[in-house]
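To whoever is covering the structure queue this week,

Two jobs came back overnight. Logging them here so there's a record in the thread.

Job A:
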Amino acid sequence: MDAIDVFRVRPDGSFVWIGSADSLPTALKVIKTLKVEPSDAFLIHDSQRNNTLTVRADELAAFLTH
């Protein structure tokens, strides 16, 4: 069951649901496959743990290498 939701953060601060994933690395890979600008922001929410992470597209490389 996918427990992690991925949202794009719009410039006005609202969110658009992009999809879901079964893990944080998969969620980050989903974002990486999108056509994004370096300053685009994404919100990743883990509903099972009730944790939320906000990441900019230009920060993805650092997350994917850890």
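Job B:
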Amino acid sequence: MADTTILTATGDDGFLHLLRGQLHDQFDGCSRMIVAATIDEACSLLPMAHPRLIVVHWTRLGNHLGELNRLLWSTTLLARQVPVLVVADRYRTEQATTLYRMGVTEYISRTHHADQLGRILDSYLRPSPPSGSRPAASTEDPTQATKSWSSTARSVAAQVV
């Protein structure tokens, strides 16, 4: 499987073991994971790693919003948009709201969404179908333009925050 580099920011060996196991089971070991101990380290590795997905393990210890904001800003400077998946130890609605407003692509918790991790990884790491096989968007469908604008707006929001 080509282009399946995952940049992971975690200091938790248990989380790393869980993620590696999931990737190995799903993709037969055909993915590359670059592990950073902190979000700041992930920011410094980002230009060289060329990841297809960034996974951040979010813990209760400390407030890492400034570091995450820097990472989200850095992803907007890349040639292609890289989704950022935040995996928290426990799901908190107010935390999810804040992180989504900052520009995080996905927010899940290990305790509540462990069964969905594989599906989420698959959606970001499986190759997309060739552009010719997609149906053409109708110019009369106003929701298509809104969807395109919304995804762009989320990228811009990450720059402004």
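Note for Job B: The two ends are 35 Å apart (CA to CA).

Please reply-all if you pick these up so we don't duplicate work.
Q.
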